[in-house]
Amino acid sequence: MRGAFVNLPGCTQVRRFAVLLLIIVSGLTLRRFGYAADLPFLVVKYGGSLLWGAMVYFLLALAVTSRTARMPSAGIAALALAVAICVEFFRLYHTPWLDTFRLTTAGALLLGRVFSLWNILAYAIGIAVAFAFDPAHRQSSPSRRGSSRS
């Protein structure tokens, strides 16, 4: 009976939403407790960026996938990377009100504070991992289609 529900679009969206919540909680936990847990700077800094990239992928996957609008997972990944790059380059733009917002917790989490090409690399890796583990991509992959379920 379980196999009857595997390909339902709603189930994929529920799985994506659950993964999105897990990523958000993981990212906030890493930022809040990463240094207290004696994790290395690179793990906290770029692990958070990696999770942020994965979050963007799943947010877009939820937003652009519905019964009327379909976008392949690879298209979602490309769009997520474009959004992440734009957000990173937006850090180069400074106004007093925007810099004040960036000093808040919400501003730091959403927009970040300092431009870094390394962040773009971390976002790309996070998006690639999200793409690889996306329930919709995994269901449509050739190895999944060819396998038989018992």
In short:
The protein is mainly alpha-helical and 150 residues long. Helices cover 72% and strands 0% of the residues.
Low-confidence segments, given as residue ranges, are 1-7
The count of strands amounts to 0
Task: Give the proportion of residues in helices.
Answer: over 70%
Q: From the helix content, strand content and strand pairing, which structural class follows?
A: mainly alpha
Radius of gyration: 17 Å
Strand fraction band? under 5%
N-to-C CA distance: 11 Å
The global form is globular
Helix and strand pattern: HHHHHHHH
Description:
The structure is a single chain. The protein is an all-alpha fold and 150 residues long. It is 72% helix and 0% strand. It contains eight helices and no strands. It has helices at residues 9-33, 41-64, 73-90, 96-102, 105-110, 117-133, 135-140, 142-146. Helix 2 (41-64) packs across helix 6. Mean pLDDT is 85; it is low at 1-7.
